[in-house]
Specification:
The protein contains eleven helices and 20 strands. It is α+β, with helices and mostly antiparallel strands and about 375 residues long. It is elongated. The protein folds into two domains: about 1-45 and about 140-210 and about 305-375, FAD/NAD(P)-binding domain (3-Layer(bba) Sandwich); about 85-135 and about 215-300, D-Amino Acid Oxidase, subunit A, domain 2 (D-Amino Acid Oxidase, Chain A, domain 2, 2-Layer Sandwich).
Length: about 375
């Protein structure tokens, strides 16, 4: 049996990032059920850093993650973040939504239709009424970021174990004894960072589920028929979040921004969803997308209120939740990992997060248990 201070269950971006942070001060085992890290949602993301995307706590955590990503790029000699502007766009029937977004989000500034078409010549000027620009958005090199976290954990002496699906656990003498397919582990704390499977894993440790909802998101890469793709085009998102697209080499990455409820699984794209993506993007552009080169799907897992679930379980000793990051897990990973490590160690919350206005009551798991009790 392998002893450690913290057993992190789940090898996506959440698990790898918190393992890296924890490993600077304690012995960590990162246990992933699959044969490799980041196989599911983390490896199937649109990979964008967007400060205007998500609820307030997410936007705060995104901004607080930028410095770390830039530092990783400097250390590796290859940037983790590469500038790519973000355009939120609206037709005439959605102008009120666009104006509201600009008023609420300081990272956005309004641009008229002519300026938006100048940034992305694919947009149909007969459809486009107005847009809003996030100038500082970026592409994220997700494999590089994930590898940096895993390598940091290893360099600090922690173990990364794959093929380690949790089969059972018991609490004895203030420690967890955990049986996995790759061996037995003894840990003071278990961090549940298992993405779509987090409720299931937490139940193994005797914790009540928090109501996580895995939602399938489809992405495809399509070839344009009517005009070439310019690599410098921004990412373009409908203000109603019914589609998005961005360049992917000489082709276009597109999504219908679907949120289809799913059981935890190795998600696969549906032909209907891919067709909807092409239809929606063709309706607002002059590209004439028809030929799909590849398509995939991932599960974005949300808590009922849309905020992540971060904190010790209120009822079960030694179980720490790190789940429900939705579609924001990669861009918030560095800040969330710092927050989680501080709480696991019993340290104060990082002062920059406090100064930015982080509200732990929006994140802790007991808020969801309280909602469950109050429900009629």
């Amino acid at each position: 049996m392998t002893g450690c201070d913290a057993l992190v269950v789940g090898g996506g971006i959440a698990g790898a990032s918190v393992a890296a942070e924890l490993s600077s001060r304690c012995e960590v085992v990162l246990a992933e059920r699959e044969s490799q890290l980041s196989l599911h949602t983390t490896g199937r993301s649109a990979a964008m850093f967007l400060q205007s995307y998500g609820p307030p706590q997410i936007r705060l955590l995104t901004r607080a993650s930028r410095d770390h990503m830039e530092q990783v790029g400097e250390h590796e000699g290859v940037p983790v973040l590469t500038p790519r502007r973000l355009l939120w766009i609206a037709g005439a029937d959605r102008l009120a939504e666009l104006r509201s977004a600009v008023e609420k989000l300081p990272d956005l500034r309004p641009v008229d239709a002519e300026a938006a078409v100048a940034m992305c010549a694919a947009l149909d000027p007969d459809w486009l009424a107005a847009a809003a620009l996030e100038e500082d958005a970026c592409d994220i090199d997700v494999p590089l970021l994930c590898a940096s976290f895993a390598n940091t954990a290893r360099d600090n002496g922690s173990r990364v174990v794959t093929g380690a699906e949790v089969g059972g656990a018991e609490r004895r003498n203030g420690r967890w004894r955990v049986v996995t397919a790759a061996g037995r582990f003894d840990a003071a704390v278990v961090v549940v960072a298992a993405g779509a499977w987090a409720d299931q894993v937490a139940r193994t440790f005797g914790a009540r589920p928090v109501g996580l909802r895995p939602l399938r998101r489809t992405i495809a890469v399509a070839r344009p028929a009517r005009m070439p793709i310019e690599p410098a085009w921004p990412m373009v998102v409908g203000v109603d979040e019914s589609f998005y697209f961005r360049p992917e080499g000489p082709n276009l990455l597109v999504s219908p921004a679907d949120q289809t409820p799913s059981a935890p699984c190795d998600a696969r794209p549906e032909e209907t969803d891919v067709a909807i993506a092409l239809e929606r993007v063709n309706a607002v552009t002059r590209l004439g997308l028809r030929s799909v080169l590849t398509a995939w799907a991932g599960l974005r897992t949300f808590a009922p209120d849309g905020n992540p679930v971060i904190g010790y379980d209120p009822d079960v000793d030694g179980v720490y939740w790190l789940a429900g990051q939705g579609g924001y897990g990669i861009q918030t990973a560095p800040a969330i990992a710092r927050l989680a490590a501080a709480q696991v160690w019993g340290d104060p919350i990082p002062p920059d997060l406090v100064a930015a206005g982080l509200d732990l009551t929006d994140l802790q798991p007991q808020r969801l248990h309280a909602q469950e009790v109050e429900a009629p």
